[in-house]
Amino acid sequence: MTLHQWRSRWALQCLIVLGLVIAFVVVATPAQARTTLGAAQRVTATTGVDASTTTGHIVAASLQSCTRHVRDWTASQLEFASGFAAEGGGELPAPTAGGLASDLADASGGTLKELKSGYSVTIPSGSRGIVVRLMEEGGGRTNYWRISLPGKQAFTVAGEASTDSALTHIPISGSSLQDILSIIEGLG
Amino acid sequence: MGALDDLWGAVLDELRVELVSQTILLTAHVTAGSEVVTHQLELRNVSEFRFRSSIPGPWDYAEITEAHLARTAAGGLSIELVLWSEDAGVSVSAGSAIFDGSPVMAP
Predict the structure, then answer these.
(1) Subunit contact B8:A120, Cβ cutoff 8 A
(2) Please, are residues B4 and B67 in contact by the beta-carbon 8 Å criterion?
(3) Nearest-5° angle of CA A160, CA A162, CA A168?
(4) Does the beta carbon of B28 lie under 8 angstroms from any beta carbon of chain A?
């Protein structure tokens, strides 16, 4: 799971939890249950007050469902975070060339183009533009990116002009998007 | 692995077109750390040569960003060099090629 996917899932689950809470407060709780949030939490803690009434059952069921979902969601986030740290020592997971190209185009306003074995993103800048190539393979390398001002210079990950192919062909990693955006900012 | 993989990321030093002998000699170098390796590609029986560019000149240098070689249906060779980006490149049709002293076997 990429960080982007995780964020999307996180946001979706937040919406679900929020929806359950709203459903409880507005829809599933007639006058008797329409109390303060503090009172509602006490209902949850005791698995439903006044459960002899239909409203009480609805309130209890809603809160139990909400609580269960929050608990499961929290556990899944902790599980992801643990695996995330174990796999990369806290570093972000490396995206695919295509994913990185798409994110870069979105973040920079550049134009995404598919190549034979990768992608290019051209960011408007001066008469030449800035070209970032995000390659799945090529020249004996796999999953790398490079950035250049066509006709002028290629750059290292530190943003320094270089003709050293070992420094200008940069492996795709979790920090690549930020690295590329930093170079673009420096060139702008 | 491509026959011209070693040219990816190289700096073009010279591209000499010999019309009388119908050959093209390309010289380029690749820098990797403190190591500089020079490569030579000789294209023989050239029948077509094309340079295109919409990248404003003059350039500081010509970078061979990608280098491809393929066998054509007619049995010849098609060589495509991307210079900086897809907006510039060299296309050559040739009968055979010698890369760093060895005949190139196209896939």
Answers:
(1) no
(2) yes
(3) 90
(4) no
CA distances from A113 to A104, A133, A135, B53 (A): 12, 9, 12, 18
Q: Please report how many Cα atoms fall inside a 13 Å half-sphere around the Cα of residue A127, on the Cβ side.
A: 8
Encode chain A (188 residues) as per-residue pLDDT tens digits.
555 555 656 656 656 666 666 665 555 554 444 444 444 444 444 444 454 555 555 555 655 665 565 566 555 555 555 555 555 556 789 999 999 999 999 999 999 999 999 999 999 999 899 999 999 999 999 999 999 999 999 999 999 999 999 999 999 999 999 999 999 999 97
What is the torsional sign of CA A37, A43, A46, A47?
negative
Amino acid at A43: V
CB contact under 8 A, B59 and A151: yes
Tell me, what's the ipTM? 0.93
Which residues lie across from A145 on neighbouring strands? A134, A170
- Which of B2, B33, B85 is opposite residue A120, by nearest beta carbon? B85
